[in-house]
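Fold this sequence, please.
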Amino acid sequence: MPAARRAFLRLVPTTAALLIVLHLPDAAAQSRNERAAGALQQRMDQAEARYREAMVRVRNNEPEAVQAGDAALEDMEDVVVECGELRGCDPAGFVTTFKRLLKADADAAAAVEEEEEIDPFDTDPDGMAAGAAGDVPEAARAAALLSDGRRFVEMVQYNPAVQEAIRRWLTDMRHSLIVSHENYQYMRDLMWPHYERSALPEALLFGILAKESTGRVHSTSRAGAAGPMQFMYATGRRFGLGPDATGFDTRYDPYASAQASAAYLNERMAELNRNIELALAAYNGGEGRALRIHNASGGRSFWDESVYSQFPPETRDYVPMVIAAAWLFLHPKKYGLEFPKVDARPATLTLQKPASIYELTICLGSSGSRYGYMRMLRNLNPRYQAEDWIPAGTELRATTRVVGLYNRWCTRGARAELAHELVRSDPGGAVVGSSVPVQSVPATAAAVVAPVASSAAPSPREHRVARGDTLGRIAERYGCNLRALANANNLKAPTYALRQGQRLNLQGCGR
């Protein structure tokens, strides 16, 4: 993207805010302001002339020409900012200069046939062959961005919004990017095949995942979007997501949500002239809005000012952030970025005794993983909350390393008993005057030890939710089946949200 467009896109949001004039100055002040505005206009004209001269030098491959052009653009931006702070000065007049430069750059680009060889945008970084996409022809023909390597590389190199997004991922959000990549590696075999079959680049999947949820499958937004790909309820239902026969919301399932995401993008590109930027804008800002803007603009690019300015700030941020994450997924070494490698070979873990994900996390330790295995277990087994007691014999998705660690540390021995004890501890017992805390017992004895004086007192039929209570802990305390307890109190998986003071019906609980 030419340098003029870079600066122009940076100024679009701020210019609108600077157009408000609150008070009219007095005559003397107005005269001073007029002189100041005239000086700003002179500076803008001089900067424009310097920029045009620099662009000629750039085409002649003269050294330091690019820096000269950037300096001229920075002076123009300073003028616009100063104009916004000056009463009576209209920044919109200066924006016209940028429009002239945009047109000049576009005309020059159309007249010059580029001969420089640019590395293509690698849609297959792992050397895997692309899948067939006969059933999704629009995705297979999606050349607007990700399969048009030349245009994508140019946009990443010259688009200031994408450059800014890359900077954010590499600085303030570096940890989020790395965690997203680690989470994705564990879920890759569940999610990537859907994009591969749709001829959609894996980098695009990662970019959306990183921006939407950081690879946390139980992520839920304030607006109600849920799951790793953040589907709204109604949109999810259109693409096969939502409560299944057991009540589990499949928006939280990485396999189902990736399948729906690929189908959704394919549908958007079919109606948006296979423009992936607009498809991403629809993903975030609403498909109705994207389609209206696209039709009204006559098919202009997302980066065209008349299109770009009609999307809300969140969407204008979202599109370059996804593109930047996709770019970094493919080219980490260029930026000194090192994604940690994890042993993500999938395997089935069969529980030899009842356990919760909390307990498994403790006994598995962190061998081979900086942060332990709780997030991996939750992402691969989204039907279970971390505190749910999962019956013996249940098969969980895991990795070969985790299966080995489980057999070594979680079936017997001191660490297994310690993990069991920790997750059974009742924090209520630490409060003076509370009921007698549940005694921690080894896992082998937990099934046969009865609560003290259980025969002397009637079983409670109701529990009042206290601060810090979770449904899993309540179910364990009273010997309830978690699913049955949730159904009896109309609590929806997977969050089982409780409020302090809420009264739960314990009918059917064992103690």
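Residues 14-25, 109-145, 436-458 have pLDDT under 50 and may be disordered. The chain has four domains: 3-111, 140-335, 349-422, 457-511.
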